[in-house]
Each structure stands twice: as structure tokens, then as C-alpha cells.
Amino acid sequence: MMKRLIDKLEKYHQLTKDEYISLIENRNPEISRYLFEKSRNIRELHYGKKVFIRGLIEFTNYCKNDCYYCGIRRSNKNTSRYRLTKEQILDCCKEGYRLGFRTFVLQGGEDSHYNDQVIIDIIKGIKSLYPDCAVTLSIGERSYESYKAYYDAGADRYLLRHETADPIHYKRLHPPSLSLESRKQCLNYLKEIGYQVGSGFMVGSPGQTSEILAEDLLYLQEFRPHMVGIGPFIPHHDTPFFAEPGGTAELTLYIVGLVRLMLPSVLLPATTAIGTIDPVGREKAILAGANVLMPNLSPREVRDKYMLYDNKISTGDEAAECTHSIIESMKLIGYQVVIDRGDFKGDENIIQEVSNV
Ligand code: SAH
User: Fold this and answer.
1) Is 140 in the pocket of ligand 1 (CB under 6 A)?
2) How far is the centre of ligand 1, averaged over its atoms, from the C-alpha of 173 (Å)?
3) Does the beta carbon of 44 sit less than 6 angstroms from any atom of ligand 1?
């Protein structure tokens, strides 16, 4: 019965809410194995054994928001705050380019110090020095006009997880100033403007049920993002959720597999969070259908300050060390990190791959 649902998802790329709930609630090791075999095959049909890498630059941990799960929330007085200058960011890119990165992801808290002019200046700086690289922004909710201005300045992609597709659950995770409605509005704007857009959510966040997870999957099915970030919720000791249980690697991997069947050519990262709760979590995610890794390129001095959750990995490694170990660990499971922008290609490239066989 469950296998039939997985076959159906593989064939039609969509299921009903009840079918997703059923797949989540009745999963077991045998079903997972069945799913991962398919998700891995589909991933290889589209991307072969290639793994794309993105250099993650965590450029500010100041944030005006107060999300209950996040370690860099405004109310956390125990975080020492930092901001990177344009020059520091360009230094990260220089090192990253040397190491083979062709995408730079600028991620940060919602920090008004980086107004439109500052962000545009940084994007143009990166694009003029590295015209062959993609720039991805992940700086939260801004206006249509701002998003448009960044796009016109050269930004290619934008990551904005929807966090949870259930409005009541959204309220459980966020302060009253934030709403699912405005989050979704931003995602719609980003897509309309022409960005490659990433959405996603945490697995196992407080109050999440199988029904809510099914709603998250339905949202992805409908919105059809180009990228999907999925990681386990991990408690941070200085947040209101300090005593909540974290999400499991097992369920996170299962959801990754389902997303690969639903959106066959999606860019799907093996996230840092899954690597944090399981030492081989990122390898397992690749084997479950993920095709992207996002190593940390932030300067060493600030890495332990961008603590979204406890025990975040590779806070001490040099960018180079960290990248080398990732390349090696991918080789060990038969995958190859490539020097490539790794753009979203849509579903048409599959035809070429198949006719090559
Ligand atoms: N300010 C940006 C970037 C947020 S950080 C934005 O609003 O999009 C990137 C992601 O980290 C978040 O979208 C969230 O899903 C995840 N995250 C934050 N706290 C977390 C935690 N405690 N455990 C796991 N993931 C977390």
C-alpha cells in the first residue's frame, strides 16, 4: 500500500494531503529503503553523480526578528553580534573562488544596517569581480521594490524558507509581528521577479504534526520552488524552545526523499543541520536524493557567532579544510563535487540524459 503511494508520487509528482499523511505515519525502514532507491535514481537521472557546492557567507548575526527557535533572535542577549564589511565579504569570495565555488550565498539576520544601497553595492562588487558566479541572497522579508532592485543589481537566487505552511503553527514558532501570509507574499514576489527561489522548513519543530508536514509538502507541490531547504529543528539553549525535543535525522531524510519524487529536478541541499545531528547525515541526505552542499565560507573568527542552534558543525575548520573534507566524503560514497554554478535546469534536461543512455 505504502509502496503504491510512493510509485504514484514518482509517476505523477503529486499526492493528496491524506496520502502524504499516510506516507509519513506508516513509514518504516523497508518503505524508506524503497523510497530512497527511487529518489536517488531520479536525482541521478537529472544530475548524475554531481554534487553542487555553494559558499555560505553568514555576513551578519544582527536580527530585528524574534523567532522562537532561532539562536540569533533579537532577545538573545548572550550572542555577541558582528557584521562583515563589503571588503570582508569579497575576501570570502576570493578564497571561495580559489576553492572552486561558483555560487556565493549571502545569509544573515534581518539587519537594517544593510539597506538596499549597501546590499546592491555588495552584489555589484561580487558580480564585477566574479561574473561567472551566481549570487544567492538569504536575508529574510523585504519589499517587492527591494527584491526587484537586488535582482536588477545581479542577484540570481533567493532562499526564504516558508518555515511551516500552517498559519496556526506559524504563530506558534514566531512572534505576532510575523505571519505566514507575508512570508508567502514574499515568496510569490521573488518568483514573479525571476529569481530561482528556495523555500523549505524544519522537520520536528515544536508542535509539528504529520498533518502539518503534509501541508508543507502540499505547499511545495503548489508553489514549485527551484530549491528546497529541509533540516531538522535543533534546540538552542538561549531560546524559548531550549527544552523542546529536536527533529530526527530519520524523518528529515524521509522528507528529503519525498521532495525529490515530487520535484524531480529541484536543487536540494544536504543541510548543515542534518550534518549536525548525525555525523554522516549529509552523506545520507545525498543518498536520499539531495544534490547540493553549502559549506561555510564565513571568516573563522565569526563562525561560532552565527549559532542558529546548538552544536552547529564546522565552526572551527578553515574554509579550505572544510571543503576538502567534504569533497573526500562525497568521493567515498561515489559522488563528485563539481566546479559549476549549478543553476536550476527544469525538467527538460532529463530527456537528453535518457537519450544518452
Ligand atoms: N533571516 C533569514 C535567514 C534565516 S537562517 C531568513 O529569514 O530567511 C536560515 C534558516 O535556518 C531558517 O530559515 C530556519 O529554517 C533555520 N533555523 C533557524 N533556527 C533553527 C534551529 N534552531 N534549528 C534548525 N534550523 C534552524
Assistant:
1) yes
2) 11
3) no
230 Cβ closer than 6 Å to some ligand 1 atom: no
Q: How far is the CA of 330 from the centre of ligand 1 (A)?
A: 25
Instruction: Write out pLDDT tens, residues 217-263.
Output: 999 999 999 999 999 999 999 999 999 999 999 999 999 999 999 99
Taking the CA atoms of the chain, what radius of gyration do you get in angstroms?
Answer: 19
C-alpha 354 – ligand 1 centre gap (Å): 37
DSSP letter at 163 equals B
Nearest CA to ligand 1 atom 11: 308
**Contacts for 173-181: CB closer than 8 Å, 24+ residues apart:** 173/67, 173/68, 173/69, 173/205, 173/206, 173/207, 174/65, 174/66, 174/67, 174/68, 175/65, 175/66, 175/67, 175/68, 177/65, 177/66, 178/65, 178/67, 178/141
For 126-161, how does the pLDDT look when each residue is reduced to its tens digit (9 = 90+)? Answer: 999 999 999 999 999 999 999 999 999 999 999 999
Ligand 1 atom showing the smallest separation from residue 229 Cα: 15
pLDDT higher than threshold 50 for residue 23? yes
Tally of CB atoms within 10 A around 344: 15
Q: Which residue has a Cα nearest atom 24 of ligand 1?
A: 233
CA distances from 209 to 24, 25, 187, 212 (A): 10, 10, 24, 5
Cβ of 155 below 6 Å from ligand 1: no
Sign, CA dihedral 205-209-213-219, equals negative
For domain 2-355, which architecture applies?
Alpha-Beta Barrel (3.20)
What are the CA-CA distances from residue 77 to residues 62, 65, 88, 239, 301 (Å)?
11, 13, 25, 10, 19
pTM of the model: 0.97
Quote the ligand 1 centre to 109 CA distance (angstroms): 9
